[in-house]
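Record type: monomer structure entry
Structure origin: computed from sequence
Chain ID: A
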Amino acid sequence: MEQAKKSTSEIDEKLDTIKLSFDIEYAKWLSRNQSGSFSKHGNLSIDGESSPTRNSSSSTTIRKRRPKANCVETSSELPDHEIHGFVNETLFLKNFLLKQKESKEFKTLAIVGKYGVGKTTLCQDVFNNEEVKQAYIPRIWVSMYSKETKEDEDPKIDVVKRILRSLGVEDEMFEHIKTEAEEEKRSKDEAGETEEETVKEKELSRLLYALHSNLLGKKYLIVLDDVWEDNEWDQRLDDETSQQERSHLSCGFPKGSGGRVIMTSRDESLAKEIVGEEENLQHLFPRSDAESVWEMYKDAVKAALKIEVKPRYPGRFKQELMDKSCGIPLAARMLAKIEPVKMDETGDMERKKSF
């Protein structure tokens, strides 16, 4: 256990070093993209890795807000580069989705890991697998951050609405649901009836009922990508005992048609609140295979500079790459951009020593 803690601490220190080296390049990238859409693979910040602060003397949770640099909207589209180094993880995820395909049991799975280890890429790969496409209809990808979200929108309501939009529900229905909730609350207040349920809770319960109705009888797959504390999705989704609470998130997901929900997060404690048992967690660690990290780097250099990397000393080169990237796929790809290769006098490819 002590050895594992030491290893994790060393990785954290190396990630901090990489972040310091990336700061200048990130500032340049950010200035180019402030007015455009963000890319999952363009965001270099590794801030915000710590778990939310919880008051040990009470059940109070101080919700950790998503840092601005991590406001990245993802999609189900495959990345624009070849995927390396996730053979075992891909097999595990496909097994989760395709083994016992006829099972009617509702299941959840959380993929947990540091920023840049490939959680989103792994899910995109499996989400677009042909067997998975045939087995699950509908398939819905939800980026938990969305540029379209209004500042005053309730986080839970926002996500449920976006899932419903993917199912073809139009905004007019949402306005109708909100109006109904407001009118019900107003009429009960006027009648002097005591009620603890707020307008937002009434609206959420109606939206969850609509979601349940639209998914009922369907073998659905929903991916909730990059869940943070500020999304307020912190309720166990397979908790059938809480379905009597109409605004509980589990009410939105029918349990008898073989549906699956996969979430990704950097926060293990939050993931456990949503999927429950440890067996429902899949940890995604930095790559330990130098060859796959090398392939990631080489592809990124080729894409950026249109050249092949042919180091004079391949073994030393690959080990240095592993030491600097810590096996983090995103770090390897970004090292290819900020530490580019150059041609020496003999015609061999060597990297510029930028740090």
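Annotation 1: The longest strand covers residues 107-112.
Annotation 2: The mean pLDDT is 81.
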